[in-house]
Amino acid sequence: MPLKRRQFVFFSGVGGFGLALLGKMQSHSSEYTSCRLRQRTSDFNLVSQAQPLTSEPILRFVSLADTGTGAKGQYAVAQAMTQHHKQNAFDLAILAGDNIYNDGEIEKIGAVFERPYEPLLQQGVKFRACLGNHDIRTANGDPQVKYPGFNMQGRYYTFRHDAVQFFALDTNKNADWKLQLPWLETELSRSDAAWKVVFGHDPIYSSGHYGTNQEFIKNLTPLFQKYNVQLYINGHDHNYERTRAINGTMYLTCGAGAGVRPVGRSEWTKHSAEKLSFAAYEVYRDRIEISAIDTKHQVFDKGIVQL
After folding, report:
1. What span, in angstroms and rounded, lies between the C-alpha atoms of 139 and 145?
2. In this structure, are residues 144 and 100 in contact, taking their beta carbons and an 8 Å threshold?
3. CB-based burial of residue 182 (10 Å sphere; 0-12 exposed, 13-18 middle, 19+ buried)?
């Protein structure tokens, strides 16, 4: 039916108004959608900044002690370390003393160090050692201090990797504590490292054969507490033991690098074991994750040191 002129004008006006209204609605919808997208992007960025999607360790290292026998047990632990390195590459290994049995004879270095750890040494892993009681039986350990493969800068010394500073001690009975103790306090006080790790041969807290060292508790642990040492690593007792944090410091015995002895438990023990093993560490900005690994490549203990 043909439209009259008035009807045509009316419907034309309505159509124009409708199109205009529709355009405004689409415009508002587009602005709203854009705003929501911006908000979601902003929210995602805030979440991403607060909780990174990936977190890589700033340092990986391992520790072991009482290694230097050149016998089957040492080679088994060395092989487990090599296997671990293939999956979680590290470039630092702490040797916490008794590097050469029985009397620290440097002429045995090929059999008790260079050959067992040859695959790791060839891949650039740097070993850092301290002196054990067997090591000082020959020339008071001086040949080992001078041996390039142990990377010792003296009988006691310090070095740093990123946010971690290490302090190596001579804990032997003939150690010069009149010089070493003030040196340790000076170096700890100077350090601005987030993580401070001290290592020596003798245990401070131990449920093993040698037990707890009351003299070290008296002279060393107050410095650890004062300067926020989070971890102490030792050998001497041929076992694995990890303590809870004692006044802010975890104590870890990793002396089963070639042989084992019985170990018990104490009120502060988190885990102890009579297993040939080494300890592996992954250092993050806010924590250190510790894994105890045996010769069957099994992780038999895990612990976390909080910053």
Report:
1. 11
2. yes
3. exposed
Rounded Cα–Cα distance for residues 134 and 117 (Å): 20
Give the residue from 98, 165, 91 showing the smallest Cα distance to 131. 98
- Residues pairing with 304 in the sheet: 289
pTM confidence score: 0.83
Are the beta carbons of 171 and 202 closer than 8 angstroms? yes
Residue type, 265: R
CA distance 295 to 298: 7
**In angstroms, rounded to a whole number, what is the distance separating the alpha carbons of residues 83 and 33?**
53
Could you tell me the strand order of the sheet in which 92-95 lies?
126-129, 92-95, 59-64, 277-283, 287-294, 299-306
DSSP per-residue string spanning 231-262: EEEE-SSSSEEEEPPBTTBEEEEE--SS----
Q: Which CATH number fits domain 59-306: 3.40.50.300, 3.40.50.2300, 3.60.21.10, 3.40.309.10?
A: 3.60.21.10
Q: Is the dihedral of CA 62, 67, 68, 73 positive or negative?
A: negative
Return the DSSP state at 182. Answer: H
Provide φ and ψ at 77, rounded to 5°. Answer: -65, -40
Nearest Cα to Cα of residue 243 among 205, 209, 273, 279: 205
What are the pLDDT digits (tens) for 247-305? 999 999 999 999 999 999 999 999 999 999 999 999 999 999 999 999 999 999 999 99
CA-wise closest residue to 196 among 221, 169, 161, 166: 166
